[in-house]
Amino acid sequence: MPLNKLLGSWRIIFDTNPDDCNLHCIMCEDNSEFALEEKKQKGKKRRKQMPSELIERVIDEAVKMGELKEIIPSTMGEPLLYREFNRFIELCQKYNIRLNLTTNGSFPKKKMEEWAEILIPICSDIKISWNGSKQETAEKIMKGLDFNRALENLHILIDQRNSRKRKRLETSTITLQLTFLEQNYKEIPDIIQLGGDLGVDRIKGHHLWVHNPTAEKWSMRRNSKSIENWNKMVLEAEKRYLQIVNTQGKKMKIENIYLLSSEDDVLLSDSVCPFLGREAWISNEGVFSPCCAPDYLRKQLGFFGSIEEKSLTDIWNSPEYERLCDNYISYNLCKTCNMRKKREEVYKYEFKGN
């Protein structure tokens, strides 16, 4: 299918500041202690922040290409540390598009009340990384996190969001997002309970991308025993979720917390890619990427060009990208991708909250 026919409502992710973060989460491709040590050994230089002029140029072209619904600041690094973050707010207002934010929950540089006032009216969804129901677990995974402060921030955010809802003003959804790990999987039912008690809209997660040898033992997909343990937890999580829905009448969603098969390494045999033909990923240097897989894996999918040299339209409609869209399931990376979704979920694709 020609890509211009796939393109309807879509969004763009900008890796504005991948090396700027005030936390060092153990599973992070860029800012974990393992990643930082590897960069030091290889003599890698700190990547520069994306110039706002590049963002403006891409958005202007993207609006002309189709119905651009959302823009997303860096999902690697803490986006609220991007020095020109306010430009995102201005561009959302200019083009009547929404901001989809993923943050580590520390809300740096401003008071939480100020961030809530800025973000809630302009965001479609605010995803807060939440990797444990207990302080000890969360702080061991998200190194540098003040769990109690993050919890206080979450309370303030929800209170201000609810205040806008009562006034029937446009507002965002709020999601708790986690990486499924050996260290935290047992606490997922309690995270669901916390979300239900506080009134978040969704609990969402994904299985670990293993990008260093140490992390292999953290994956819940590493062997049949870990999969068995995971599946026992899933049944408990579903039970807890149903209790919340039935007793509290909440409409909170849970996503990607489902039973794994021990027969092979494919997560969902009937699943499809939620990114190709629907999202564009732009690196801090302007390189186009097809998805959010770790950089060293994503390169297996090919090189599609830089928007410094080609227009976004030319890249989007290039034979190379169309070939990937048509044949991605033949790539080893795509066969076992942590991010694939059930077919019906993708074709009912809704940007609000994704």
How would you characterize this protein structure?
The protein is α/β, with parallel strands linked by helices. Helix content is 39%, strand content 16%. It is built from 14 helices and 13 strands. A nine-stranded mixed beta sheet has the order 9-8-7-5-4-3-1-11-12. It has a two-stranded antiparallel sheet with strand order 2-6. β7, α8 and β8 form a beta-alpha-beta unit. The longest helix has 25 residues.
Write a brief caption for the model.
The protein is of the alpha/beta class and 354 residues long.
- Percent of residues in helices comes to 25-40%
Structural class call reads alpha/beta
DSSP E strands, number = 13
Number of discrete helical segments? 14
Radius of gyration computed on alpha carbons: 20 Å
Shape: globular
Which whole number gives the mean pLDDT?
86
Hey, roughly how much beta strand do the residues contain?
15-25%
- What ranges have pLDDT less than 50 throughout 5 or more consecutive residues? 1-7, 346-354
